[in-house]
């Protein structure tokens, strides 16, 4: 059926176009021969094709444009009196004798435009006559196109009236009155279309009306182009009359389109000075009108107007634009009780954007908008509409993007309250946006109060909200927690007392996040605290502040608690590393007993929590490295710790691991500093013990695989011998090095299965180094001279 209907419409359109072309041919022939009577006859017959009711607005427009093009030719003929010999006054009377009303009125409008231009009659009377006569056509589509034609042909004449030096105020008012009356009649015809057919046809009619809306809007465009329509005339005449039509039509499509037309057509200055009247119409619109889009476009235009020049900003303050917009939005939301959440929130987003652009210095305005949004959100159930949620995120992002400074957003008391209305997932997304803003702009949060507010904002990342169990992808979770860890480094204050408060606040919130988050956030917190410790180096007394740790001792106490919580996760390897960092910081502060306690905790972790052999090897090397750098320990404490380290080294599971750990322990007894320990005998004992373990490893390899294992361990020990030999350890002699080289050569002869292997290359490189030292001469060359290769 739809296909047949479309085919029929195409057929009717083709017949109408053919009729127009046929009569236009004879009309042109009459125009060429200056035959007025024949021209009027065929033009009337041509225009009779526009009487059809079978076409949709889209198809009727095609037919109308064919006739319109022909009427332009006819108008040019009417202008030239020398061709037809009839005055414009007589011509105006003559065309009124056309048989049918629709062709008659088209011809009357055509002649009328010429009559106005000639100024042979009062403009007011002519305009009034034309607009009144057009009431004779009440069919909506035919009437709309007829009045559209009237507006189109009179358009240039009306704008000339506005700019003509001899056009007085009364003449301009006549032109304005004509356009307003034509607009009023067109609007009535347009609205009437919606009520012609009930049921399902109403949707079809709505679509057809959307196709015709520009015909009605043309009148407002004409008003906007009349130059002498100044602000006073607009305020006192134009806007009240147009708004009266908008409100009284009671049609949602009409009200939406016409409000949008008003906003787009007239100057921004006019909108600002008539803001109260324009906004006063908004609560009177139908509940189904998309008022959020109308107001959003108005605020967007006003924002751009404010940005165009700083000179206009005072006008916004004079008319109290923000207050009026805010009050209107409140009224609209109150009146439209069925407005969805997304509509209300969108209005607040637009108002906030307006505020940030026009009044960026008025944070109280921005906070007021956020507060109004909180009030609205509090009166509705939990947000489940994804579009509404997106708008809330847009509301929260606006201050961040405007100020590029989270510190400014933190001063908005209602900002966290808005975030509370987001679901858990969106809350996390917004928290990530906040952190990204801080990192991007390199923003430093420097007060404890602001840190407290900030961590309330990002609580979706640092703890599980409402006891919910997140089914979050592991990679996403890591990204989130790494972002929080980066954020902690952006919290800083030069004042030790304030920085101490910040650390305590972060620790409080971090502990609320549960064990799975601690491995990500604790290291950042520890290093932030250690940075404070190093700034406080040498201070023993308390700094003003009773609760906050502001001396190294107190901070180390807090650090011990923090790392202890981490070791209970369990994450012993990470806890061990952090204990060692704290021990080194205590060493720098010359706090021996504190450093000793951290090493004690390190060894406890090693004994009780680290069971994996590979992790044990890594841990023991870290312990040895840290212990070797310690300078604060007395003889007793140092001996105790080095004894522990060497003991654990010798008890590693794998012989090669034992060997490497033991020869590394040799560095604990020889520190190459001015005041460092230099116990050559104990160094030699470690290296000899490492040789025995290496030999045992070789024997075990021989038993297990039937051949001696690689000689890498021996070469590594040889390099340690060479290191201490160069450093001046009297216990390491050239003879001992010679013996070790011979031992390695013997072992290599016994294992000739892998020539060119890594141990061979390693040994060759070591021997080249010895040769280089021998050839260098001097004291060092003399020391190496007795070693034979």
Automatic annotation (TrEMBL):
The organism's place on the tree of life at top rank: Eukaryota
Bilayer topology term: Peripheral membrane protein
Keyword Membrane: yes
InterPro entries according to UniProt: Vps35, Vps35_C
Subcellular location per the Swiss-Prot or TrEMBL entry: Membrane
Entry keyword set: Membrane, Protein transport, Transport
Job description of the protein: Plays a role in vesicular protein sorting.
Family affiliation: Belongs to the VPS35 family.
Protein name: Vacuolar protein sorting-associated protein 35
Taxonomic source organism: Hibiscus sabdariffa (roselle)
């Amino acid at each position: 059926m739809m296909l047949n209907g479309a085919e029929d419409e195409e057929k009717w359109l083709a017949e109408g176009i053919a009729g127009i072309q046929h009569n236009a041919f004879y009309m042109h022939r009459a125009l060429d021969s200056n035959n007025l009577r024949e021209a009027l006859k065929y033009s009337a017959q041509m225009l009779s094709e526009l009487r059809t009711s079978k076409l949709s607005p889209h198809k009727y427009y095609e037919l109308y444009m064919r006739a319109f093009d022909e009427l332009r030719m006819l108008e040019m003929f009417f202008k030239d009196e020398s061709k037809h010999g009839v005055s414009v006054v007589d011509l105006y009377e003559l065309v009124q004798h056309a048989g049918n009303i629709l062709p008659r009125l088209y011809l009357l409008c055509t002649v009328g435009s010429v009559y106005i231009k000639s100024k042979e009659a009062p403009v007011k009377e002519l305009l009034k006559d034309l607009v009144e006569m057009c009431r004779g056509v009440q069919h909506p589509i035919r009437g709309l196109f007829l009045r559209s034609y009237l507006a189109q042909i009179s358009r240039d004449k009306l704008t000339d009236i506005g700019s003509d030096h001899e056009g007085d105020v009364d003449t301009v008012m006549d032109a304005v009155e004509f356009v307003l009356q034509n607009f009023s009649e067109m609007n009535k015809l347009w609205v009437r279309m919606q009520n012609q057919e009930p049921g399902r046809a109403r949707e079809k009619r709505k679509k057809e009306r959307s196709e015709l809306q520009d015909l009605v809007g043309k009148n407002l465009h004409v008003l906007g182009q009349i130059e002498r329509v100044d602000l006073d005339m607009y305020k006192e005449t134009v806007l009240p009359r147009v708004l009266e039509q908008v409100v009284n039509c009671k049609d949602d499509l009409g009200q939406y389109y016409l409000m949008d037309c008003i906003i787009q057509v007239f100057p921004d200055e006019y909108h600002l000075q008539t803001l109260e009247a324009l906004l006063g119409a908004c609560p009177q619109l139908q509940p189904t009108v998309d008022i959020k889009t109308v107001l959003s476009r108005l605020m967007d235009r006003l924002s751009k107007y404010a940005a165009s020049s700083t000179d206009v900003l005072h006008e916004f303050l004079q008319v109290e634009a923000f207050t009026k917009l805010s009050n209107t939005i409140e009224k609209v939301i109150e009146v439209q009780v069925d407005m969805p959440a997304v509509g209300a929130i969108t209005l607040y987003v637009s108002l906030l954007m307006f505020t940030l652009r026009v009044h960026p210095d008025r944070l109280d305005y921005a906070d007021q908008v956020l507060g109004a949004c909180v009030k609205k959100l509090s009166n509705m159930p939990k947000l489940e509409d994804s579009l509404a949620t997106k708008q809330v995120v847009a509301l929260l992002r606006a201050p961040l993007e405007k100020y590029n400074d989270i510190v400014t957003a933190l001063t908005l008391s209602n900002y966290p309250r808005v975030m509370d209305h987001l679901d858990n997932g969106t809350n996390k997304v917004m928290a990530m946006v906040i952190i990204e803003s801080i990192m991007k702009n390199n923003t430093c949060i420097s007060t404890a109060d602001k840190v407290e507010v900030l961590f309330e904002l990002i609580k979706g990342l640092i703890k599980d909200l409402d006891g919910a169990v997140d089914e979050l992808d592991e990679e996403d979770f890591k990204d989130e927690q790494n972002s929080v860890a980066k954020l902690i480094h952006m919290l800083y204050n030069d004042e030790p007392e304030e920085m101490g408060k910040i650390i305590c606040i972060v620790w409080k919130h971090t502990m609320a996040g549960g064990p799975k988050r601690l491995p990500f956030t604790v290291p950042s917190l520890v290093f932030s605290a250690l940075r404070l410790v190093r700034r406080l180096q040498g201070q023993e007394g308390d700094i003003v502040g009773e609760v906050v740790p502001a001396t190294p001792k107190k901070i180390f106490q807090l650090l011990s608690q923090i790392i202890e919580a981490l070791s209970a996760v369990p994450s012993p390897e990470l806890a061990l590393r952090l204990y060692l960092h704290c021990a080194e910081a205590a060493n720098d502060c010359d706090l021996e007993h504190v450093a000793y306690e951290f090493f004690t905790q390190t060894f406890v972790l090693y004994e009780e929590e680290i069971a994996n052999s590979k992790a044990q090897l890594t841990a023991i090397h870290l312990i040895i490295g840290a212990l070797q750098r310690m300078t604060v320990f007395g003889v007793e404490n140092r001996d105790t710790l080095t004894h522990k380290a060497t003991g654990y080294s010798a008890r590693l599971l794998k012989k090669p691991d034992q060997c490497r750990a033991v020869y590394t322990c040799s560095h604990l007894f020889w520190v190459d500093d001015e005041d460092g320990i230099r116990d050559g005998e104990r160094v030699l004992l470690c290296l000899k013990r490492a040789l025995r373990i290496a030999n045992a490893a070789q024997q075990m390899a021989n038993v297990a695989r039937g051949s001696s294992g690689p000689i890498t361990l021996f070469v590594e020990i040889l390099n340690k011998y060479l290191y201490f030999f160069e450093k001046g350890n009297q216990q390491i002699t050239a003879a001992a090095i010679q013996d070790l080289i011979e031992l390695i050569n013997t072992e290599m002869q016994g294992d000739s299965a892998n020539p060119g292997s890594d141990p061979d290359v390693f040994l060759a490189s070591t021997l080249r180094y010895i040769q280089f030292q021998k050839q260098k001469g001097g004291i060092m060359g003399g020391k190496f001279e007795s070693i034979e290769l």
